[in-house]
Amino acid sequence: MNNSPIGVFDSGVGGLTVAREIMRQLPNESIVYFGDTARVPYGSKSKETVTKFSEQIIRFLKTKDVKAIVVACNTASAFALPEISKETDIPIIGVVDPGAYAANKTTVNGRIGIIATEGTVMSDTYAKVLKGINPELQVFSKACPLFVPLVEEGWLYDSVTYEIADRYLHDLMSYDIDTLVLGCTHYPLIRRTIQKVVGDDVTLINPAYETAKALEKVLVDNGLSAENRKAEHKFYVSDSVSKFRTFALGILPCSVDYVECVNMEQYSE
Ligand code: DGL
């Protein structure tokens, strides 16, 4: 069981930022990654739809004998984690709690900004978790829907991306936040641009990094850590294999040899 893979899923390619952190921090762990590339984006869809898709993905991952599941997608974590946890008895974690705990530890003035998809912002999950940790915290959220297509276009350091970031973050900065959570899978890829806009006095929190740390603790606590060996990663998508492979090769520290397209209809009830 310990050498079984970790299931990691996302609405598409963005969750590779989480897979990348797991590969860096837990190099012995194999990953089965599923990206729902046929049905992306989740960020503009309803809670019901995102929950239904996530449940289907859990059913798929269970067929791969995964020992734990990481919901890499912020929107799926925000909308669906409690529901989908009922689908399985193996450990399952999302990205919201690790990001929120790190933000709470980091802030000095108690004023935290969240940037995310429309769905994640609407769910208010980050704010609820943060207030659960410390009711004194003040949380300010902003949806930044254009960031996802900009990242997928590869415009990470482009002047257009800077301008859009500036427009989105202007109001947030007027609230005197000292900590900003990158609450969407894609945002760590433009963190340098975001940092330039908000300035060095604001600390950026990367939930992908925090989630890999949280995963390590879950594995250790459950006696599930893999032995020292060469990890093997497999990737599954619901749409074009070649488009996924190109993006994955651009950001992962490993080869992307095994990519398979899955028909998700067979996992609906
Ligand atoms: N993976 C999504 C998230 O982290 C972003 C892309 C989408 O909207 O599906 O919220």
Strand content: 15-25%
The main sheet comes to: 6 strands, parallel
The number of helical runs is 11
Strand order of the largest sheet: 4-3-1-2-9-10
Q: What would you report as the Rg, rounded to the nearest angstrom?
A: 18 Å
The termini sit apart by: 27 Å
Helix content estimate: 40-55%
Q: Structural class, judged by helices and strands?
A: alpha/beta
Helix and strand succession? EHEHEHEHEHHEHHEHEHEHE
Mean pLDDT: 97
DSSP E strands, number: 10
Given the C-alpha coordinates, what overall shape results?
globular
Report what the structure shows.
It contains eleven helices and ten strands. With 269 residues, the protein is an alpha/beta fold. The strands form two sheets. It has a six-stranded parallel sheet with strand order 4-3-1-2-9-10, with helices on both faces. The longest helix is centred in the N-terminal third of the chain and has 16 residues, at 47-62. The two termini are 27 Å apart. The site of D-glutamic acid has 17 residues, from helix 3.
Give a short overview:
The protein has 269 residues and is α/β, with parallel strands linked by helices. The protein is built from 11 helices and 10 strands. It has helices at 16-25, 47-62, 74-85, 96-106, 118-123, 125-133, 147-152, 159-173, 191-198, 207-221, 241-251; strands at 6-10, 31-35, 68-71, 92-94, 111-116, 138-143, 179-183, 203-205, 233-237, 259-261.
